[in-house]
Amino acid sequence: MAALEDEFTLSSGVLSAGPDGLLGVEQSNKTDQFLVTDRGRTVVLYKVSDQKPLGSWSVKQGQLITCSAVCNFQTGEYVVVHDNKVLRIWNNEDVNLDKVFKATLSAEVHKIHSVRGTEPVLLFKEGAVRGLEALLAEPQQEIEAVLSDGEVIRWTKLFMVFRHPVLIFITEKHGNYFVYVHMVNSHTLSKYTLLRGQEEKSVIQSFTASVDRKFISVMSLSSDGCVYETLIPVYPTDPEENQRVVSSLLLRAVVSGSAPSGVALTVLDRDHVAVLGSPLSASKECLSVWNIKFQTLQTSKELPQGTSGQLWYYGENLLMLHGQSLTVIPYKCEVSSLAGALGKLKHSHDPGIQVMPPFVNWEASQGDGLGSQHAEQPRRILRRRKIEVSSQPAVPPSKQLLTTIMKDSEKHIEMELRKFLAVKTPDFHAIVGDLVTGLLGRCQVEPSFCPRNCLVQLIQTHVLSYSLCPGLMEMAVKKTDVQLLQLCLQRFPDIPESVTCACLKIFLSIGDDSLHQAEIDMESVFDYGDSVQGDNVAAPVDVLQNGFSPEGDTCLSCCQEVPAKPQDAAAATPTCPVTPQRAALLNAILHSGYSEAFLLPHLKDIPAQHITILDWICLLLDANFTVVVMIPEAKRLLISLYKFVKSQISVYSELNKIEVSFRELQKLNQEKNNRGLYSIEVLELF
Amino acid sequence: MGEFKVHRVRFFNYVPSGIRCVAYNNQSNRLAVSRTDGTVEIYNLSANYFQEKFFPGHESRATEALCWTEGQRLFSAGLNGEIVEYDLQALNVKYAMDAFGGPIWSMTASPSGSQLLVGCEDGSVKLFQITPDKIQFERNFDRQKSRILSLSWHPSGTHIAAGSIDYISVFDVKSGSAIHKMIVDRQYMGVSKRKCIVWGVAFLSDGTVISVDSAGKVQFWDSATGTLVKSHPIANADVLSIAVADQEDSFVVGTAEGTVFHFQLVSVTSNSSEKQWVRTKPFQHHTHDVRTVAHSPTALISGGTDTHLVIRPLMEKVEVKNYDAALRKITFPHRCLISCSKKRQLLLFQFAHHLELWRLGSTVATGKNGDILPLSKNADHLLHLKTKGPENIICSCISSCGSWIAYSTASRFFLYRLNYEHDNISLKRVSKMPAFLRSALQILFSEDSKKLFVASNQGSLHVIQLLEGSFKHLHAFQPQSGTVEAMCLLAVSPDGNWLAASGTSAGVHVYNVKQLKLHCTVPAYNFPVTALAIAPNTNNLVIAHSDQQVFEYSIPDKQYTEWSRAVQKQGFHHLWLQRDTPITHIGFHSKRPMHILLHDAYMFCIIDKSLPLPNDKTLLYNPLPPTSESDVVRRRTAHAFKISKIYKPLLFMELLDEGTLVAVERPLDDIIAQLPPPIKKKKFGT
């Protein structure tokens, strides 16, 4: 399953990310390092695992970097262009960009491309392409104009196809798009006109491409919110002629076209694309991963501070600007297996998705607090230092807080807790555990005491586990506090099956009105229409389909296509008995670690009226498989499977016939051979 | 070769007892097998799976457990509450000791082989220390509520697992207290059984306990926490037995449906170090309950109610893919249960608790090959002689003239004198047998019925002169000093001058009966002797070994004959050596001095020493009579081995006179018909 892991932020102090975002993020020759170029004067080299910059270079005041810096993988040097024409080459030891190698070119550079296995390739604004070495040999060489007047390069990318660099760039002129494929080594250029169907009116907002053996697949995200795909041959049949390529719809309505800061699209692997932008109904921006084969949304992550509409993907990291900071979201797609789907591989589905290791790592916590799990850690360290300097309490803050918990009012505790949580102390795990135990202890003594907010905060520290505070879930079960239970299910790695089952019973039996009041985390039922939230039976008309089916938008196809997300099914099938809130809660159960062998015995006690819900969940699971068999790639497999099963059946029936015949023959044979218990026979030996 | 009249006998109503336990000894590569009638057999797996020793059964001594301990000592325990040690040299029971815990259901030796543990009906687990000549009760473990059906020792010797009804206990050996009680689920496929019997447990060195139970499950438990780790439902009926390989990378279980499943520890993915137990191969070699299984380093061994002992070599463990890698199915004992009086045409059948005497019929008709001749007189059942006491018959013999019958049990020797008056037969027991004739391993009458030779289990050979109605002890050949090895096979020359005797390993001794002294010892050979006979006139001793070699040794010359040397020089035909049942009887007729009759369970062969030996290119066995071939071709292809596979399974064959053979067959179908019906299973499920 494709999954986004928890994000972390690269310190952005040295970067000046303007409203237009960054100029570019490029890979360095070490897998973990990236060159980030802002729209001003600075290039920063980041090491992602350390979350910190390794080096930073700036051009002189008054100069402006115009192309994002790249790494020359063959030499390990960095190359950048400033003021459109000035080429600079330097390496890690250099401090001042002003003193490094400089070459002034005769034409304006659009972009420098560098990929492993070849020298950097420069694309000029007029459409000419040069390798770096050839250019350095004669910097002032004449650069021809390839593009016509008014034709602007919109997007460009360099691929290695069978060890040959191929540069593709897309230009726009008067709302028409042209695709150029330039074979760098042979200097052959082919031009294609991009024909677009009904979507002609919309503006293409983002491109991405991947290369297969023979085709470059260019995907574009249009302002209508849909993703289109265009296949362009790598080796043109006739390079001279102006050819046409047609784009076809790949994914329908993945984002709203009118995002304030634009949208971005990038291919992750053969089956997945990442889309940055705001979903149709929600206003907050999201990073979502779509499966183009099944046309389903795999996962998504809200980016509430907004983005610059730029998205880079290198290695396993998605990089983007989130607010003012450069954010890295690791993306993992593990090959799913049937065993995994059946819940047999309980823990194998990437453990990294959890922020905390399944069990508390005491050794790590004794060292420097919370390790590197938290994105804003560098900032926090600074803040902590400040606080420590300003108020050095005589009593450890945890002790103080514990006494507060024992005596003070809820509000005061909450305030103190917030203060405490802002500072991460070395033995944080133990203290948080103590705090929860303290709070629960007071709850038992004082029934009126209900420190819900404190508990929510503490659970969200990610350091708690079921075994650390077993009383917590018991209390939540007793109080039927679904929100707390959901949080626990999401955060605790070690919930026993019986408790999971108790939660399931509560989630199934709780009334809808109480669900409406509860603040349930709806992230798992990534939402499309508020109308669905208000009423569990929504008119299907309002709901945009996720994916499309060329055969027609029958209701059947849409329920089959959107199985994974319960609210989609809720919207599409008017009879769905589950409200989104309940669906979110059920998802929390489904996502928690359980094994069916243990859970099933508990499920037998579920009352009859809830069985329908279970049936419905089963239907959903079935639908998932239906989707698998509906995809065109599966058709051949299905046909051969069908043939195979058919032949197996006939083989078996023949075998049965043969067996019966043999039995009869054996009987006859026995009768023939049955010479009684005694006989005298003649035998001749030869 | 000529024409024979064959008395084809199928009225020997012999049914082998079901197999209850098997125990494999790695050091000696021997397999001990116990049957439901209390018989214990020892198979030498290095000697072509030959059954080299056996201990006669006893009505009250139903063995439930069998195990080897240090120094290759063999113990059994059973429902009479006794632990029995066997003397593998003298072939008798060394001692039996009551464990005072009621019927014993299970027994296991400690990993060091110095302690024995028994599980009793009263729920007690008793620890015995094995001393050099006995065993000594040491202490009881914590008593459980119900009978202990299975036991397994942790390889380190610190803990044991005990399977009972509905639960498994884990004991600490030092304290003797139960540290865990693991409850086994009674349910199977939704059906709750009344009880779940843990038929077998196996303790692995990593602390995993594997259990098999009556609900058809194979389950893995963590003994440290007492929790169920994994459950494999494998059968609709009981899983009765389990055996683990010494390397702990594979184990085998047997079910009541006759299926044997092989489980192996295999890597989860091709290059990961994480391993899991996977059910790899099902084997269906049995029709009835597989009561017991064993795991040798190279083979899976199973046995059960259907009386077959099945040895299934693991192809991946067999280094040389020769005939040894083939499946072995051993059904019949490797010794002769039938003796024959040539003069009176009588057959004496030996059963566990009685003897039957039959007279063969006769015909006056003649016919050609394959004809069934009309009987002028049918076969008669003359005598049914029941033993007294609970002990099984070890051996029996009828004299050539038909007037003497002798048989022996483990503690008593019986000699009868028979008188024939027309159709009447009278039987008179010869009383006052001497004390040294308490128990015989083999009995033989001389050709003239004047002498009786008895091999006692003390290693001595007694020569007794028979007079009308009484006897006289002539001599006892004592074993060579220092050996107590029992003699199992005897042969006397037709002139009565020579007696050959063979033990299980010490070679063949030839005694001069006239002078009452040891004449010579045939050079030792690596493989045990399976049959012995002395030819008339020439006094050549013919010896068959378990590796299918046949030697001819001239007693007067004290050396191998020319023919035998020629055979050894050329070597036997490969198909002859690949036969998988031993030769159990060798016969001659005085009028055909060049002919040797040999038979195993699936063929008989008359070797004509005057003809050339077959080489590997010759067709050894040609079932079709020559039809259109010219005499030249026939002469060219004629070779010494005249083989017929018409009669099978063949338990006995003898030349009654020059042109008459008697063949005793025991068709498997007749045995199956006497077994309880098996659990029905659909072969081709559709």
From TrEMBL, chain A:
<protein>
    <submittedName>
        <fullName>Nucleolar protein 11 isoform X3</fullName>
    </submittedName>
</protein>
<dbReference type="GO" id="GO:0003723">
    <property type="term" value="F:RNA binding"/>
</dbReference>
<dbReference type="GO" id="GO:0030490">
    <property type="term" value="P:maturation of SSU-rRNA"/>
</dbReference>
<keyword id="KW-0805">Transcription regulation</keyword>
<dbReference type="InterPro" id="IPR042859">
    <property type="entry name" value="NOL11"/>
</dbReference>
<dbReference type="InterPro" id="IPR048897">
    <property type="entry name" value="Nol11_C"/>
</dbReference>
<dbReference type="GO" id="GO:0005730">
    <property type="term" value="C:nucleolus"/>
</dbReference>
<feature type="domain" description="Nucleolar protein 11 C-terminal">
    <location>
        <begin position="399"/>
        <end position="613"/>
    </location>
</feature>
<dbReference type="Pfam" id="PF08168">
    <property type="entry name" value="NOL11_N"/>
</dbReference>
<dbReference type="InterPro" id="IPR012584">
    <property type="entry name" value="NOL11_N"/>
</dbReference>
<dbReference type="InterPro" id="IPR036322">
    <property type="entry name" value="WD40_repeat_dom_sf"/>
</dbReference>
<keyword id="KW-0698">rRNA processing</keyword>
<keyword id="KW-0804">Transcription</keyword>
<keyword id="KW-0010">Activator</keyword>
<keyword id="KW-0539">Nucleus</keyword>
<feature type="domain" description="Nucleolar protein 11 N-terminal">
    <location>
        <begin position="1"/>
        <end position="332"/>
    </location>
</feature>
<dbReference type="Pfam" id="PF20998">
    <property type="entry name" value="Nol11_C"/>
</dbReference>
From TrEMBL, chain B:
<dbReference type="GO" id="GO:0001650">
    <property type="term" value="C:fibrillar center"/>
</dbReference>
<keyword id="KW-0539">Nucleus</keyword>
<dbReference type="InterPro" id="IPR036322">
    <property type="entry name" value="WD40_repeat_dom_sf"/>
</dbReference>
<dbReference type="GO" id="GO:0006355">
    <property type="term" value="P:regulation of DNA-templated transcription"/>
</dbReference>
<keyword id="KW-0805">Transcription regulation</keyword>
<keyword id="KW-0698">rRNA processing</keyword>
<keyword id="KW-0804">Transcription</keyword>
<protein>
    <recommendedName>
        <fullName>U3 small nucleolar RNA-associated protein 4 homolog</fullName>
    </recommendedName>
</protein>
<dbReference type="GO" id="GO:0003723">
    <property type="term" value="F:RNA binding"/>
</dbReference>
<dbReference type="GO" id="GO:0030686">
    <property type="term" value="C:90S preribosome"/>
</dbReference>
<comment type="subunit">
    <text>Interacts with HIVEP1 Interacts with NOL11. Part of the small subunit (SSU) processome, composed of more than 70 proteins and the RNA chaperone small nucleolar RNA (snoRNA) U3. May be a component of the proposed t-UTP subcomplex of the ribosomal small subunit (SSU) processome containing at least UTP4, WDR43, HEATR1, UTP15, WDR75.</text>
</comment>
<dbReference type="Pfam" id="PF00400">
    <property type="entry name" value="WD40"/>
</dbReference>
<dbReference type="InterPro" id="IPR046351">
    <property type="entry name" value="UTP4"/>
</dbReference>
<dbReference type="GO" id="GO:0005694">
    <property type="term" value="C:chromosome"/>
</dbReference>
<keyword id="KW-0158">Chromosome</keyword>
<dbReference type="GO" id="GO:0032040">
    <property type="term" value="C:small-subunit processome"/>
</dbReference>
<keyword id="KW-0597">Phosphoprotein</keyword>
<keyword id="KW-0832">Ubl conjugation</keyword>
<comment type="function">
    <text>Ribosome biogenesis factor. Involved in nucleolar processing of pre-18S ribosomal RNA. Part of the small subunit (SSU) processome, first precursor of the small eukaryotic ribosomal subunit. During the assembly of the SSU processome in the nucleolus, many ribosome biogenesis factors, an RNA chaperone and ribosomal proteins associate with the nascent pre-rRNA and work in concert to generate RNA folding, modifications, rearrangements and cleavage as well as targeted d Involved in SSU pre-rRNA processing at sites A', A0, 1 and 2b.</text>
</comment>
<keyword id="KW-0690">Ribosome biogenesis</keyword>
<keyword id="KW-0853">WD repeat</keyword>
<dbReference type="InterPro" id="IPR001680">
    <property type="entry name" value="WD40_rpt"/>
</dbReference>
